[in-house]
C-alpha cells in the first residue's frame, strides 16, 4: 500500500464519519442508543481503565459471544494504552489472550477479524496526525501545553492520531466510544473526558449514547463482596435494576445489595427480627414511615426494628450498595407493600 492511497483511505473514513454526523444529527437519529457492539466496546474500555480484571474477563467473553472479532478487541486494547498507560493495556491484553485460549479449549471458535493497516515507514506522520485530529475535533488545535512541551504533541500526532488511528479495524466513532468510556472510568481526567465527549459528538455519537457510555463507566467495579447477580427474585418490588450477592446464610442471612442510580425498593416491613443496613458504596436513602428520608453514605448504619414500614435505595444520581443483615427472629419474612411514589422520591437530591 502506498502512502497516497493510505492517506486517501484514511480521509475517506473520516469523510464517511462526517457524512454520518449530518445523517445522525437529524431529529430522528438524535436519540439513537448504543448498539450491542458499541456497548461491548464501552464496557471493555471501562473495565480495562479500572484495572478490573474479573469485570474485564466477563466483558471480553460477552463481547466475543455478541460477535466482536478478536482483531477488534485487540485494536481496542492497543488503543487503550494511549489513555490509561501500558500497565493497564498490557494487563488487559494478557487477560484477553487467556480468555481466547480458554474459549478455544472449550471448543468455541471466535472470529479472527480483519488485519489492521500500518503506515509506511516514510509516511508524514506529523501531517497525517494533525489532519486526523482536526477532522476529529472539527477545529485547529492550539493547547498551551503543546507549545510548552512540543514533544508530547508530536507523540500525540505521530503515534496516537497517525499510527493508531490509521490501523482501521475500528471506526473513529468506535474508538471515541472506547476513549470516553475509559476517561469517564478514571478519576482526575475530567478535562480530557470533556474534550473527547466533544470529539465523539462531532463525529456523530448522540447525547443518548454519551449518557449510556457514562452509565457504563460509572458502574461500580470495586464493590466489597461483589455486584452479584440481577435481583430477579425480588425485581417486582424494586423500581428498576438491582443486584444481589449473598455473603453468608449459615448463621444468619447477610446479603450485599446494589441499586442502580434512581432505583429503590417498595415500602416494606421485616417481620420477625428486623434488618440492619451497612452502607458501603455510593450514596443512597433510607426512610421509615412517617419520618424524613435519611441520606446514607459509606459507613452509615441503619437499625430497622421488626415491623417498621420503610424503604431503601439509591440516590437519583448515584449507585448505592449496602450490606443487608436479616436479624434472627421468629418467623422472619418480608411483607412487600406499595411503591415509593415518584412524587416523594423526586424530592430527593
Ligand atoms: Mn428493608
Account of the 3D structure:
The protein is α+β, with helices and mostly antiparallel strands. Helix content is 46%, strand content 16%. It contains 11 helices and 11 strands. The strands form 3 sheets. The chain has a 6-stranded antiparallel beta sheet, with no helix packed on it. β2 and β3 form a beta hairpin. α2 packs parallel to α10, α4 packs across α8 (172-185) and α8 (172-185) packs antiparallel against α9. The longest helix is centred in the N-terminal third of the chain and has 36 residues, at 70-105. The chain starts with a helix and ends with a helix. Bound molecules: manganese (II) ion. Manganese (II) ion is lined by residues 268, 270, 275, 304, 310, 312. Manganese (II) ion binds next to β4 and β9.
Q: Name the average pLDDT.
A: 89
Q: Rg, please?
A: 24 Å
Q: Gap between N and C termini, in Å?
A: 57 Å
Strand content: 15-25%
Low-confidence stretches: 1-28
Helix and strand composition category: alpha+beta
Ions, cofactors and other ligands present here are:
manganese (II) ion
Largest sheet: 6 strands, antiparallel
Number of H/I helices: 11
- Report the order of strands and helices: HHHHHHHHHHEEEEEEEEEEEH
Percent helix range = 40-55%
Amino acid at each position: 500500500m502506498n502512502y497516497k492511497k493510505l492517506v486517501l483511505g484514511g480521509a475517506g473514513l473520516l469523510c464517511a464519519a462526517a457524512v454520518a454526523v449530518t445523517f445522525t444529527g437529524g431529529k430522528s437519529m438524535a436519540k439513537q442508543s448504543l448498539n450491542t457492539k458499541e456497548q461491548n466496546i464501552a464496557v471493555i474500555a471501562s473495565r480495562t481503565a479500572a484495572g478490573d480484571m474479573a469485570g474485564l474477563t466477563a466483558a471480553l467473553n460477552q463481547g466475543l459471544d455478541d460477535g466482536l472479532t478478536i482483531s477488534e478487541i485487540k485494536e481496542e486494547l492497543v488503543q487503550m494504552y494511549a489513555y490509561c498507560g501500558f500497565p493497564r493495556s498490557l494487563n488487559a491484553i494478557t487477560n484477553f489472550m487467556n480468555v481466547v485460549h480458554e474459549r478455544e479449549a472449550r471448543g468455541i471458535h471466535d472470529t479472527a477479524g480483519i488485519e489492521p493497516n500500518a503506515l509506511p515507514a516514510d509516511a508524514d506522520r506529523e501531517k497525517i496526525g494533525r489532519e486526523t485530529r482536526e477532522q476529529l475535533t472539527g477545529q485547529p488545535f492550539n493547547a498551551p501545553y503543546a507549545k510548552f512541551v512540543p514533544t508530547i504533541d508530536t507523540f500525540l500526532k505521530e503515534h496516537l492520531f497517525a499510527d493508531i488511528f490509521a490501523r482501521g479495524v475500528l471506526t473513529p466513532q468506535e474508538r471515541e466510544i472506547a476513549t470516553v468510556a475509559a476517561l469517564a472510568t478514571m478519576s482526575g481526567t475530567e478535562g480530557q473526558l470533556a474534550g473527547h465527549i466533544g470529539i465523539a459528538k462531532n463525529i456523530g455519537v448522540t447525547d443518548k449514547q454519551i449518557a449510556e457510555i457514562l452509565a457504563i463507566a460509572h458502574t461500580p467495579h470495586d464493590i466489597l463482596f461483589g455486584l452479584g447477580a440481577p435481583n430477579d427474585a425480588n425485581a417486582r418490588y424494586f423500581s428498576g435494576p438491582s443486584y444481589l450477592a449473598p455473603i453468608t446464610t449459615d448463621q444468619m442471612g447477610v446479603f450485599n445489595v446494589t441499586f442502580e442510580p434512581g432505583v429503590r425498593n417498595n415500602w416494606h416491613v421485616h417481620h420477625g427480627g428486623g434488618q440492619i443496613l451497612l452502607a458501603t458504596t455510593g450514596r443512597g436513602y433510607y426512610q421509615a414511615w412517617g419520618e424524613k428520608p435519611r441520606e446514607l453514605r459509606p459507613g452509615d448504619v441503619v437499625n430497622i426494628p421488626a415491623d417498621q414500614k420503610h424503604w431503601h435505595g439509591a440516590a437519583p444520581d448515584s449507585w448505592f450498595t449496602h450490606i443487608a443483615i436479616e436479624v434472627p427472629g421468629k418467623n422472619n419474612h418480608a411483607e412487600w407493600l406499595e411503591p415509593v411514589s415518584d412524587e416523594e422520591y423526586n424530592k430527593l437530591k
